[in-house]
């Protein structure tokens, strides 16, 4: 298995935080798939978001159609209950005496959880990095909206690259953005490890709803492998924020979780109006990116691509992803042969 093969990448990404649900969708158990792992996401009776294995260890009942109970989640098949924080079995209705529980107390696996940006995040193995709190929004009072998730038949890196790509605006987003110049001006990329940022000036386009708020500075800030953000600064018109964090279902499939927020100083519409506007943009992307080949960024170098200076941000994103993978492989002792594939 080579260093950046699909299998090696999937192994490394188990140590990264990814979204598995919107916070607003987990009042009842909800299924999710992350890196091929079947999960169930729910909010327990105390209001805590929980993520566990999806299937009961008894006879494989589907906890995603179970119900939340005092201890966590109850299997719909035989009623076994499991603590959402530890995965420990807390009840077997057929055996009300805990002393008669089967030996080696049955349990499902529970995973760490963080709620941030109006979404639920988890990590399948020991996290390599903390989930970031972007410094540029720490002093902003943000009104968040979590968008409808978008399933796509491409890898999550390809979806993240699309968010960070500016050269497609004139061709994919003519409907929402108007007559954007196809020229991508030179930009200064700041990259340190897995983190990268840049700023571009986005001039208002006459007749475009997207830029009806006026000129803006777009501050891009990304954290490899799969978190990308844009802070829109309209000067006296205030700020709004856009986040994108595609989650890997498998090597070549993802769910694009994303959201937007308006700051209290924003003077050009409500949070709902901005979400509707950005939804138009994402809806323009989906049919295009869903048909790209290869389906995922070819970090293993098996597919030859041709890049230009306009790709500087996405090329730096790839380097940041490789830096993440290298650090994970070194820390957790994953050894791969470059000549294996």
Q: Layout of helices and strands, plus pairs?
A:
Blueprint: H1 6-13, E1 18-22, E2 30-34, E3 37-43, E4 49-53, E5 67-68, E6 72-74, E7 81-83, E8 89-91, E9 110-111, E10 113-116, E11 119-122, E12 142-146, E13 150-152, H2 156-164, H3 169-172, H4 174-177, E14 190-192, E15 195-202, E16 216-223, E17 227-233, E18 239-250, E19 253-263, H5 271-289, H6 312-332
Antiparallel strand pairs: 1-11, 2-3, 3-4, 4-9, 5-6, 6-7, 7-8, 10-11, 12-19, 13-19, 14-15, 15-16, 16-17, 17-18, 18-19
Can you walk through the features of this model?
With 341 residues, the protein is of the alpha+beta class. It is 19% helix and 29% strand. The protein has six helices and 19 strands. Strands 12, 13, 14, 15, 16, 17, 18 and 19 form an eight-stranded antiparallel beta sheet that branches. A hairpin with a 6-residue loop joins strand 6 and strand 7. It starts with 5 loop residues before the first helix and ends in a 9-residue tail after the last helix. The model has no long low-confidence stretch (mean pLDDT 94).
């Amino acid at each position: 298995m080579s260093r950046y093969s699909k299998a090696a990448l999937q192994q490394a990404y188990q140590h990264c935080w990814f979204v598995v649900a919107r916070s607003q969708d987990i009042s009842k158990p909800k299924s999710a798939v992350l890196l091929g792992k079947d999960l169930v996401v729910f909010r327990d009776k105390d209001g805590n978001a929980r993520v566990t294995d999806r299937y009961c260890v008894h006879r494989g009942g589907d906890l995603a159609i179970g119900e939340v109970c005092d201890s966590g989640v109850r299997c719909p098949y035989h009623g076994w209950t499991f603590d959402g924080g530890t995965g420990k079995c807390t009840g077997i209705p057929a055996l009300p005496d805990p002393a008669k529980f089967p030996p080696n107390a049955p349990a499902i696996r529970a995973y760490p959880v963080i709620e941030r940006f109006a979404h639920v995040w988890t990590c399948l193995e020991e996290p390599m990095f903390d989930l970031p709190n972007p410094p540029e929004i720490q002093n902003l009072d943000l009104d968040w909206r979590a968008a409808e998730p978008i399933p796509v038949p491409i890898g999550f890196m390809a979806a993240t690259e699309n968010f960070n790509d500016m050269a497609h605006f004139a061709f994919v987003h003519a409907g929402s953005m108007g007559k954007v110049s196809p020229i991508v001006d030179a930009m200064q990329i700041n990259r340190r490890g897995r983190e990268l940022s840049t700023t571009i000036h986005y001039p208002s386009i006459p007749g475009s709803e997207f830029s009806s708020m006026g000129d803006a500075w777009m501050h891009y800030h990304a954290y490899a492998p799969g978190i990308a953000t844009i802070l829109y600064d309209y000067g006296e018109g205030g700020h709004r924020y856009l986040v994108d964090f595609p989650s890997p279902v498998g090597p070549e499939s993802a769910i694009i979780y994303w959201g937007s927020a308006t700051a209290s100083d924003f003077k050009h519409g409500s949070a709902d109006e901005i979400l509707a506007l950005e939804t138009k943009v994402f809806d323009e992307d989906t049919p295009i990116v869903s048909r790209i080949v290869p389906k995922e960024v070819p970090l293993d170098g098996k597919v030859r691509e041709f890049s230009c200076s306009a790709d500087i941000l996405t090329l730096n994103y790839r380097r940041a992803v490789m830096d993440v993978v290298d650090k994970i492989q070194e820390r957790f002792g994953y050894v791969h042969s470059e000549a294996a594939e």
